[in-house]
């Protein structure tokens, strides 16, 4: 493709069987890329001889019970682009644990918790559109030394506090293996709405 041109592949999980059937017809046409789709989509590409670099299962949640969201705690502070270096330093502790780009701080959605001045927990949004009335909470991360203190729930609730008057549809994604996070999200008002897979596919295996 010419430089600067991008192709995005998207399929609906409203018809899982149809999605997998469509994927099976595209196995030779899709370039090496990231694919998100219904459960089993990685197997479709693998069975056709495509290299699977990695794959992961996720659960998508939406905020169905706003009344269950706890009030924002006093120790949850708002973060802005000026806190970019502190945020990046926290995420760098476990680089693969949460997806974060510094530009996300521009959405005015990020919050954090500090202990003795150091940022130890953080969360914000991966996407927010007031035009389409939707937001996706993401980049939720707590320093390993401070887990088990309720900081994950606190920063998630803090993000909701920051965006609740801007959008009415709030969702998030969580890996299927992160049982602790899934329990937290359910407790504060989220309901699972979809299970899906994500994978990075490579070329045909010789």
Features:
206 residues; alpha+beta; 8-stranded mixed sheet; 5 helices; 8 strands; 34% strand
Overall description:
This protein has 206 residues and is of the alpha+beta class. The protein is 23% helix and 34% strand. The protein has 5 helices and 8 strands; from the N terminus they run αβαββαβββαβαβ. It has helices spanning 16-26, 41-47, 84-91, 151-163, 179-187; strands spanning 33-38, 50-63, 76-78, 111-115, 118-129, 134-142, 169-175, 190-204. It has an 8-stranded mixed sheet. Strand 5 (118-129) and strand 6 form a beta hairpin. The longest helix is centred in the last third of the chain and has 13 residues, at 151-163. It is globular and about 55 Å long. The mean pLDDT is 91.
SSE diagram, text form:
Blueprint lengths: L15 H11 L6 E6 L2 H7 L2 E14 L12 E3 L5 H8 L19 E5 L2 E12 L4 E9 L8 H13 L5 E7 L3 H9 L2 E15 L2
Parallel strand pairs: 6-7
Antiparallel strand pairs: 1-8, 2-7, 2-8, 3-4, 4-5, 5-6
């Amino acid at each position: 493709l010419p430089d600067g041109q991008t192709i995005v592949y998207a399929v609906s999980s409203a018809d899982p069987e149809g999605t997998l059937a469509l994927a099976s017809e595209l196995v030779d046409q899709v370039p090496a890329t990231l694919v998100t789709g219904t459960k089993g989509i990685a197997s479709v590409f693998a069975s056709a001889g495509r290299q699977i670099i990695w794959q992961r299962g996720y659960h998508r949640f939406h905020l169905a019970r706003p009344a269950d969201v706890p009030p924002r705690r006093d120790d949850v502070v708002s973060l802005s682009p000026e806190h970019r270096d502190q945020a990046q330093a926290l995420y760098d502790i476990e680089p693969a644990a949460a997806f974060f780009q510094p530009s996300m701080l521009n959405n005015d959605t990020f919050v954090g918790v500090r202990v003795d001045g150091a940022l130890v927990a953080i969360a914000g949004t991966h996407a927010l559109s007031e035009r389409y009335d939707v937001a996706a909470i993401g980049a939720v991360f707590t320093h390993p030394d401070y887990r088990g203190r309720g900081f994950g729930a606190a920063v998630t609730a803090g993000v909701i506090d920051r965006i609740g008057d801007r959008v009415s549809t709030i969702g998030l994604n969580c890996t299927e293996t992160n049982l602790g996070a899934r329990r937290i999200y359910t407790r504060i008002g989220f309901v699972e709405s979809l299970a899906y897979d994500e994978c990075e596919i490579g070329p045909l295996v010789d």
